[in-house]
Specification:
The protein contains 4 helices and 7 strands, in the order βαββαβαβββα. By secondary structure, it is of the alpha/beta class. The chain has one domain: Spore Coat Polysaccharide Biosynthesis Protein SpsA, Chain A (Alpha-Beta Complex). The two termini are 24 Å apart. The C terminus is likely disordered.
């Protein structure tokens, strides 16, 4: 699940339109079976299945719950990534899924140099406990991904122009 519901006010325009294709490319390079994009403040064209979080302004938890509610009953766990993390490593997704399969923990998050990051995996048992703050309010089992590097968090156009993140491919 890719969370792309925010207003992107610090960016100055819908950054999802710029960054989502790259994030989706990386998610699809992982071993996940299905991809759902949660939209809210802005409409974004994508070839992925989308879900609208009408209450996205209530916080990231509202967007996350909208996405979780849209998943089929057969889904046992959801991997959550952010649409503004263009340096996401597909291997981080696979690593957190494998850690869940091994441990059975209800909440897992990758860590980079000991700092919690994305992706986050929520087993179905944790879905009803998602508060308005989102998954960051849940205590996860950490899955080290120091060798992969964090996905990034693009807040402004300067983040891309300044080279802090890989520039998305030109359209």
């Amino acid at each position: 699940m890719v969370l792309a519901a925010g207003a992107a006010t610090r960016f100055g325009s819908p950054k999802q339109r710029l960054l989502l294709p790259r994030v989706l490319e990386r998610v699809r390079a992982s071993g996940v079976d299905d991809v759902v994009v949660v939209l809210g403040a802005h409409d974004v064209e994508t070839d992925a299945r989308t879900v609208r979080a009408d209450d996205w302004e209530d916080g990231p938890g509202a967007s996350l719950r909208a996405g979780l509610d849209a998943l089929s009953p057969e889904i046992e766990a959801a991997v959550v990534v952010l649409a503004d993390g263009p340096n996401l490593a597909a291997a981080a997704i696979d690593r957190v899924v494998e850690a869940w399969r091994t441990s059975g923990s209800p909440v897992l998050a990758v860590s980079y140099r000991g700092v919690r990051g994305h992706p986050v995996l929520l087993a179905r048992a944790a879905w009803t406990s998602v508060p308005d703050e989102g998954a960051r309010a849940l205590e996860p089992q950490l899955v080290p991904c120091d060798d992969l590097g964090p996905p990034g968090d693009v807040d402004s156009a300067d983040d891309i122009a300044g080279g802090r993140f890989d520039a998305p491919p030109a359209e």
